[in-house]
Design goal:
This is DB domain-containing protein. Pfam families: DB (PF01682). Strands 1-4 form a two-stranded antiparallel ribbon. The protein has one domain. 41% of the residues lie in helices and 5% in strands. The chain is globular, with a radius of gyration of 18 Å. It is mostly helical. Helix 4 crosses helix 5 and helix 6 crosses helix 9.
């Protein structure tokens, strides 16, 4: 889909090509976290009217409410010095923080899904928060607004799939850089907090190695925890 050859370009109207470029430029990689020095990209507010008391309105629409106790002193939220990575994770995704503390075997799909719940993603996105459904084809549908999960949620889903870790070394070994985008694709593999990057069409070839990225995320969870 992303390899546009000359004959295909001739057949595609210029308005369609412009639309593809414009939509991809709305995508963001990485999330900011809560550090005051990191300026995040604010997604447009999605209008919502949640009919169930088990749901609330969030940035991407209605999301499921989760009762979870946050093990963090309120004074830590008001202090001026930067938080540690573990403290920040307690706020951004308590499930990731819990997995790192217990260091026991975990189910990668469950860890992915629970993080998406932490990030208050709507059901349409939760359906993709597992390694079987989180595919290049799913992202393509989001880009073209053929899916109810908004494209802006991609940054949250990528963060959750990678569990907030930097997988650049694994991605390099896995051939993620062997596309027209080269080393830029490693940006999608680094999901540590505080490095949000606005994507543009130069990153599109990276989707050709999307399964290679996911393999790094999956195997790291099964090996590390």
């Amino acid at each position: 889909l992303w390899r546009l050859h000359l004959p295909a370009l001739i057949l595609i109207p210029y308005s369609t090509i412009f639309s593809i470029f414009w939509r991809f430029q709305c995508a963001v990689n990485g999330i900011c976290g809560v550090q005051p020095y990191c300026a995040s990209y604010a997604p447009p507010v999605q209008p919502c009217q949640c009919v169930s008391a088990a749901y609330a309105c969030g940035r991407y629409g209605c999301y499921r409410l989760v009762l979870r106790y946050l093990i963090l002193e309120r004074t830590n939220l008001r202090r001026n010095e930067p938080m540690s990575e573990s403290e920040e994770l307690e706020i951004v995704s308590p499930s990731i923080a819990e997995n790192r503390r217990k260091r026991g075997p975990i189910n990668p799909n469950r860890a992915f899904f629970e993080c998406c719940m932490d990030r208050q993603l709507p059901d349409a996105c939760l359906a993709k928060c597992n390694f079987r459904s989180y595919t290049r084809e799913a992202l393509t549908s989001m880009y073209f607004k053929q899916d109810p999960c908004p494209m802006e949620a991609m940054s949250e889903m990528q963060f959750c799939a990678a569990q907030g870790r930097d997988h650049a070394d694994c991605c390099a070994r896995n051939g993620v850089t062997t596309t027209l985008a080269g080393m830029k694709c490693l940006t999608l593999c680094n999901q540590r907090l505080g490095h949000p990057i606005r994507l543009d069409m130069s990153y599109a070839p990276c989707l050709d190695r999307f399964e290679n990225m996911k393999a790094c995320f999956w195997h790291d969870m099964t090996r590390f925890y």
